[in-house]
What we know:
Blueprint: H1 2-9, H2 13-33, H3 43-78, H4 82-85, H5 91-116, H6 118-128, H7 143-160, H8 164-182, H9 189-195, H10 202-208, H11 226-230, H12 252-255, H13 258-263
Amino acid sequence: MDNLINYFETIPSLHRGLILAGGIAFFWIIESINPFFKFNYSKIHHAGINLFFTLTTIIINFALAFILLETAEFVSKKEFGILQWLPQMNIWVYTIFGLLLLDFFGAYLAHFVEHRVKFLWRFHLIHHTDTYIDTTSGNRHHPGESVIRFIFTTFGVLIVGSPMWMVFLYQTLSVVATQFTHANICLPKKLDKFMSYLLVSPDMHKIHHHYKLPYTDSNYGNIFSVWDRIFGTFSYLKREEIIYGVDTHMNPRENNELIPLLKIPFQKTRSPQEN
């Protein structure tokens, strides 16, 4: 465990970039060989849009990284935050508990609020407009949402009292989990269901991308599924019934073109429909 901590305390930016690129490449190959949905689309065009948003997310996170570093240093020096106030415990228990808390504040809570606050939903909507969910869809976030997510992540580090090595570990696991749950693949149904009792499984997250309510407003989890189960936001839908997208933006000219996607947060809000 000490080696793991030491590695993530000083993980080079190059390694983080390789993990991101390597994950996309790996799942891209897997889903190309045996896709779950056989989409009739230009995979290159679709990937180009999503990789543009991935790049803007990387740039924003890199530009604001000093805030995250300062926050992690503050909580460590001042012994502030939940983890800092707990009695000494086994390092594995400490790490798992910390990852659970970071996943709640930085991912589940952020995601839940984005769906509940109309102004924030305008930016998150771009992620849901994707009608061809694959591994590149995981980082399809409007630059405005990238800033929103960063704020929640920083808030999470402050409240949790997380050291920087744990933040880097969480972000690494989060990247891989996001690529996995968005990939156009499927696990055997029993395995997927078993996995979903603790972790977010591919089927579980793809239900979140169903084009109509109430499924859109469910399954907010990122790595751990326990928060959805605890707070009653877990839902189930047969994988064969899933239709990707969001019912307010099903026109390809709006959901599969870069410039219209960038403009969506500044347009008039459209009302969704429930099943």
